[in-house]
Amino acid sequence: MRAALLSKFNEPWQVKDVPDPRAEDGQVIVRIEACGLCGTDVHVHHGYIPGIQLPIVPGHEPVGRIVEVGRGVMGLKVGDRVGVSWAQQGCGRCRACQEQREGYCQSSQSWMQLGGGFGELMRAWARGCTIVPEGLSSEDAAPMFCAGFTVMSGFRAADPKPGERVAVIGIGGLGHLAVQVAKALGHEVVAITGSADKVKPALELGAHQAIPAGDDAGKSLMAVGGADVVVSTSNSAKHVSQVLGGLRPEGRLVNLGALDGPIAVDSFQLMFPPRRLVGASQGHRRDLVELLGLAAAGKVKPKLEVHPLQEINQVLDRQAAGKVRFRSVITYPRA
Ligand SMILES: [Zn+2]
Ligand SMILES: [Zn+2]
């Protein structure tokens, strides 16, 4: 098969022919139709993610059709269109696995053990596959397995109630989905952005109001009435620290971004009025399934730039330089 191989950190990925993967017991082979590329792939490229053995085919936002099913696989069959999440299969024995929350298993297996979606074929644990609903294109589905999943788990962690006002800070790969999810769930949405050129796109995505973060993101938010929930997808520790001050009483700030420094919290900001600061990442698989449902219903649609596999190094460069609006996907010819 044709694949992009990472053989040495910080060097261009080699697009070349490699042996086809075969399914072992409990595994499937997926013919990839689309695979998203995100900031984590840039970290992979630099060797910042622990546990990666080279050479490897990266790609953790894959969607395609099952072409081979290993022994012992239940439920899935050849021809099913699935995506594969980062956490595929847990150890089955730890507390998280016993609670059927294997996404939290410390020795959960991922593309790092099996190879990822930047190749025509991908080996995956059947338990890591989630069926993509009809009516949702593979391109649009791919980022749901990373950015979208993270955003949806963030909403579940912040638990916005009907009628509550939601603010989203950081309008990029995650944030542009968060605005749409908040709207799809029926909330009034305020978008807060550090770059003035994203005010208009945020309104086009469905935000009821879009404001620049200004000198103090919290004060800017409070000036337009504050929010009950802030979903932060910003990378700026300064913005996240500030925006806590824009929460209404008993409001929740959920941080989804890998920040450029520690969050600074004044204890009084958490007490008068009471507020909560929580973190989230890809959580329960039901969050992903729920999001795929919203996307299939046309309520959440990623804004994509689409490229063939041979352009993967240019896409990686664009991602690293912050030039991607808002998400990039590698696509493969269909049979
Ligand atoms: Zn990703
Ligand atoms: Zn486990």
Summarize this entry quickly.
The chain has helices at 39-46, 95-98, 111-114, 138-141, 147-158, 175-184, 199-204, 217-223, 237-243, 285-296, 312-320; strands at residues 2-5, 14-17, 27-37, 62-69, 81-84, 121-125, 129-131, 165-169, 188-193, 209-212, 227-232, 247-255, 275-279, 304-308, 327-331. With 335 residues, the protein is of the alpha/beta class.
Structural account:
It is a single chain. By secondary structure, the protein is of the alpha/beta class. The protein has 11 helices and 15 strands. The chain has helices spanning 39-46, 95-98, 111-114, 138-141, 147-158, 175-184, 199-204, 217-223, 237-243, 285-296, 312-320, and strands spanning 2-5, 14-17, 27-37, 62-69, 81-84, 121-125, 129-131, 165-169, 188-193, 209-212, 227-232, 247-255, 275-279, 304-308, 327-331. Strands 3, 4, 5, 6, 7, 14 and 15 form a 7-stranded mixed beta sheet that branches. It has a 6-stranded parallel beta sheet with strand order 10-9-8-11-12-13, with helices on both faces. A two-stranded antiparallel ribbon has the order 1-2. Bound molecules: zinc ion (ZN) (2 copies). One zinc ion binds next to loops.
